[in-house]
Design brief:
Helices cover 0% and strands 55% of the residues. By secondary structure, the protein is an all-beta fold.
């Protein structure tokens, strides 16, 4: 079964940068990742979408709050998605979760969403 392992979180000052990584491990070699994304959840807040990217053409979209500051990218060969965060603000403080929509084969019409364990990002003012 697939597991998503996240890394890259930490404590930074406002204006700093961090790069989050999320890699899928386990599962069959033929797994097909349909889409990848990053979500975040701050204390007392609902989980919100940060950015998504398709595994094919690489089309991406972002929450308005991070546009121009965050960049999502992926390496299909490594089953890995990244989130480059720059010009970080205190309001970016949250636990960041990786998500991948995965099918067991390229042609399968069925897919399952997998979630990473979460990585803490704290931005001090």
């Amino acid at each position: 079964q697939v597991q998503l392992v996240e890394s890259g979180g930490g404590l930074v000052q406002a204006g700093g940068s961090l790069r989050l990584s999320c890699a899928a491990s386990g599962g069959a070699f033929s797994i097909s990742i349909k889409a990848m994304g990053w979500y975040r959840q701050a204390p007392g807040k609902q989980r919100e979408l940060v950015a998504t990217i398709t595994s094919g053409a690489g089309s991406s979209n972002y929450a308005d709050s991070v546009k121009g500051r965050f960049t999502i990218s992926r390496d299909n060969a490594k089953n890995t998605v990244y989130l480059q965060m720059s010009t970080l603000k205190p309001e970016d403080t949250a636990v960041y979760y990786c998500n991948m929509r995965i099918s067991m084969t390229t042609t399968s019409p069925f897919a399952t969403d997998y979630w990473g364990q979460g990585t803490q990002v704290t931005v001090s003012s």
